[in-house]
Prior knowledge:
This protein is of the alpha/beta class and 313 residues long. The chain has three domains: 3-81, Winged helix-like DNA-binding domain superfamily/Winged helix DNA-binding domain (Arc Repressor Mutant, subunit A, Orthogonal Bundle); 87-161 and 266-299, 3-Layer(aba) Sandwich (D-Maltodextrin-Binding Protein, domain 2); 163-264 and 302-311, D-Maltodextrin-Binding Protein, domain 2 (3-Layer(aba) Sandwich), CATH 3.40.190.290. The chain has eleven helices and twelve strands. A hairpin with a 2-residue loop joins β1 and β2. The longest helix has 27 residues, at 59-85.
Amino acid sequence: MELRQIHYFIALATHQNFSRAAEHVHVSQPSLSVQIGGLEKELGTRLFDRLGRKVILTQAGELFRVHAERALRELEQAAQVVHELHGAKRGRLVVGVLSTVNSYLIAPLVSRFKQRFPDIQLQVHAQPSSEVVSGLLANRLDIGICLLPLAHPQLTTVPLFEERLALVAPVGMRIGKRRTRMQDLAPLPLVLMPVDYCLRKMVEAECAKAGVHPQVVLEMSSPEGILQAVAQGTGATILPELYVRSRLSGGDLQLIDLYDPTPRHAVGLAYLTKRYRNLAAEEFAQLCQTTMKELQSDSKQPTASKIRARRAG
């Protein structure tokens, strides 16, 4: 089995078409077909079903893909170790980030990282926390930013910050004050994420502590879509405060602190314990911490959005 066959296999599995896969790996379509055929012959089974111009993985192909991708990642890491031994700063860093955290942390973080490592290929994927964890365990991610606590024997976590949740309502909704108790949410129509999302589960858990059954009138998986629905008067919502503050620009939303209890959750860095962390990954982790501290410090300064939130009371 040759390394190029693995690359060809991954390309075909990704593009599901011989012509596009051949173009991606810069070989002719007949050459690609020969190499895939040779790989299938060596393994003694078909890896792809040919359905006209489209090809799809067989069950054996799906299983092989998991290990093939892992093998390629291991080889990339081996190359990075050797490069860094000689002072090189090349390679790739793949990061999975909570979708809401991605909106306010990643832009300043990436700017600083690229100044430090201009030749590193950085990939950032905004994902639910569960997908960040699965990506780490499958060796698809080098580092993740996800919800804590996270108890898994293969993962190491580093606390980063506590993300506080806040009530967001249209300016026309009469809340009555700039701070409100969790129990006061009982009569409010709420727009929340679907029930299988971590953020929704946390909101419901906090409501349960206050003896509140949330009145959900609309479910949406996009935080951006939720804010648009709230701005149009559909109802109120509960989202991370920093995420909302970065979007309070049109004057059509009010941000209200929640307390008794104050809903919050821990966010942290995670990575495979036994996996080598290169210089770029170490620097990215450090920049996460310093950038987040600065964002939290800035959030304590009076801004136009915070003044609007206060005036809502």
